[in-house]
Amino acid sequence: MPVNSLTLFPSPSRHLLGAALIGFGLLGLNSPARSQTAEAVAAEPGVQSLAAVRKAAESALRRQIEPAAKDVVLEAANLDARLRLAACPAPLAVDVALPRGTQSRVLARVACKNTVAWTVNVPVDIHRKSDVLIMRRAVGRGETIAIADVVVQQRVLPGLTSPYVARPADLAGRLTRRPISEGTALTADALDAPLLIHRGESVVLAARAGGVEVRAPGVAMADAAAEQRVRVRNLNSLKVIEGVADTAGVVRVNF
Question: Model pTM?
Answer without folding.
Answer: 0.58
